[in-house]
Amino acid sequence: MESILGAVRKRGIPANPAVVISNRADAEGLKTARRLGVPAVAIPSEGFSGSRWDYDRKLVRALQKRGVSPTNGLVCLAGFMRIISPEFVKKYRNRILNVHPALLPSFPGLDSQRRAVDYGVRYSGCTVHFVDSGTDTGPIVTQAVVGVKDGDTADTLAERILAEEHRIYPEAVDLFARKRIRLVGRRTVIV
Known about the structure:
Number of helices: 6
Number of strands: 8
CATH class: Alpha Beta
CATH topology: Rossmann fold
Largest sheet: 4 strands, mixed
Number of domains: 1
């Protein structure tokens, strides 16, 4: 999130960060957003007794209050460790980006770096993709390859992958903001 906000300012990405939302009131990202002059809102999910869509309606209201509509805006997931509802995904179809610490479609879901090391792959990396109703199955926007070194642990690999995530996520936001991404079926075409 901080890399995206910084890139918007430093690289001139034609986007207006409208709000940072966290499902945890103590999230560091909220403090960072405020420090960078971006409104920040906590919508706590712990102890929430309704459905995922009941919770996500609160997200939609917070987004729309700040002008992030399903036809005008982009939702970037970064450290939002909650599964969003199919209704939210449908409402913001092709307007939600996520970053995943693996070269999708390999190692979707949790513990990707550990699974990559345990499997013995020589290359891993990260992927920015559109969110669909599956787990890390949406159309891929961009990827970065990171070599897996002998002796790597999940933590050492994760550190190198994170550096690439900070590079490619702002690039994907820039491509979206400049309307350079075209979806053809499941594939993204950069124009």
